[in-house]
Specification:
The chain is built from seven helices and nine strands; from the N terminus they run H-H-E-E-E-E-H-E-H-H-H-E-E-E-E-H. A hairpin with an 8-residue loop joins strand 8 and strand 9. The strands form two sheets. It has a five-stranded antiparallel beta sheet. Strands 1-2-3-4 form a four-stranded antiparallel beta sheet, with helices on one face. The longest helix is centred in the last third of the chain and has 30 residues. The chain is of the alpha+beta class. Helix 1 runs parallel beside helix 3. It has two domains: about 80 residues, no CATH class; about 130 residues, no CATH class.
Length: about 230
């Protein structure tokens, strides 16, 4: 099932207005779908804990998440409710998920349905921001620092560009970040890529949100690497 995409299209920093009511609309759209069907479409595990009650178990990046059924509210394993913004993102995932197999074909954000119009904005706060931050480092260490930061986040290396890593953002939404280290003739560049099936699981701006989250996590890892380097040098 696909719903109109309703997130404001910009770099997500705060929950969009009206998100709570929107979450209610999303829950209502799938409330009569059996848990086993939802689990199959979204490729998550389901644990029945009572008549008509259960839990979906999966990861958002490396964060374990529990989704309570039938009300589709999401928690950490310690029982803390996830922020409203993540609640809506995960609801969109369950609503849109149709069980489409991964294609194994990596495509740019612009090549996803509906992505071309917003590609410049997405590239500006994803790949271009990675380039801006990592190329502040000396050229001799920029690439190795990028690799170290990706590995620290659990990225799996792939032989594309100067360095590439895949990340499992959601059970059926992998991301690939590819970095090309430039020289005197060509500038450095970076892109966040998606399996071509991504919009079978999220609306286009949901894909943008995951790309932005990956970028933020990577830049946080970069800051951590810098802090450790300064501590060692100090």
């Amino acid at each position: 099932m696909n719903l109109p995409s309703r997130f404001p299209f910009k770099k997500p920093e705060e929950p969009p207005p009206g998100l709570e009511s929107r979450a209610g609309e999303l829950r209502a759209s799938i409330e009569k779908i059996p848990a086993e069907t939802l689990a199959s479409r979204a490729r998550v595990s389901y644990l029945e804990i009572g008549p008509g009650r259960g839990e979906f178990h999966f990861n958002l990046f490396d964060q374990p998440v529990i989704g309570a059924f039938p009300n589709l509210t999401f928690f950490t394993p310690t029982g803390n409710k996830l922020p409203d913004f993540q609640q809506a993102l995960l609801l969109y995932y369950f609503v849109n998920a149709d069980g489409m197999p991964l294609t194994g074909q990596w495509v740019s954000f612009a090549d996803l349905p509906g992505g071309r119009t917003y590609n410049q904005a997405f590239q500006g706060y994803s790949g271009d921001e990675v380039v801006r931050q990592f190329t502040k480092l000396p050229h001799s260490v920029a690439l190795e620092t990028f690799k170290s930061a990706c590995l620290a986040l659990g990225g799996q290396p792939l032989e594309i560009g100067s360095a590439s890593f895949t990340f499992q953002a959601l059970p059926r939404v992998p991301l690939l970040i590819t970095f090309w280290l430039g020289d005197e003739d060509f500038p450095s560049s970076c892109k966040v890529l998606f399996d071509s099936s991504a919009t079978h699981y999220l609306p286009i701006d949901g894909c943008a949100i995951l790309g932005s989250q990956l970028t933020s996590r990577l830049l946080k890892a970069l800051r951590s690497e810098r802090s450790e380097t300064k501590s060692k040098d100090g």
